[in-house]
Design goal:
Layout (H helix, E strand, L loop, with lengths): L2 E11 L2 H11 L3 E8 L4 E7 L4 E7 L5 H9 L2 E9 L2 H10 L10 E2 L5 E5 L8 E6 L4
Parallel strand pairs: 1-4, 5-8
Antiparallel strand pairs: 1-5, 2-3, 3-4, 6-7, 7-8
The protein binds cobalt (II) ion (CO).
The site of cobalt (II) ion has 6 residues, from strand 1 and strand 5.
């Protein structure tokens, strides 16, 4: 399987403004963009991390995926996203190896990417996201 490093770390935060004060204002990292995802109940800020990005995920609804994660485990690292060249081939290979998946097929992610999640049970408690960059 052709994995090309860490694409981003998804971090569940309770307060996006406080997180931006830390990462952008205090640590001096560059804010690339913010996004509102009302259908998923999320607000997202993407920080330039040099190679990999930090995806700061704040819940605007208690029943969002991040709201439930924070209620259960508290704020912190939510997922590790790995860059793959061909997400369909990657999912087929993982399925063939009996790896438990959250998503059986890739779905559209931010910025023209295609993404899918591997079940945290398969990742020793870590939720793994696969990301295929958009083909120009
Ligand atoms: Co992500």
């Amino acid at each position: 399987m052709n994995t090309m490093g860490i694409h981003h770390l998804g971090i569940a935060v309770e307060d996006l403004d406080a997180a931006l004060r830390l990462y952008r204002d205090t640590l001096g990292m560059r804010l690339k963009r913010t996004e509102e995802l009302p259908d998923r109940g999320l607000e997202v800020a993407v920080i330039d991390g040099g190679g990999a990005e930090l995806e700061l995920l704040a819940s605007v609804r208690e029943d969002s995926v991040i709201g439930r994660f924070i209620a259960r485990r508290g704020a912190g690292i939510h997922h590790v996203a790995l860059r793959v060249s061909d997400i369909d081939a990657a999912l087929a290979e993982l399925r063939g190896r009996g790896v438990r998946l959250v998503d059986q097929a890739a779905r559209p992610g931010a910025g023209g990417t295609r993404v899918a999640f591997v079940h945290p049970e398969a990742g020793q408690g870590v939720l793994i996201e696969l990301v295929e960059e958009g083909r120009a």
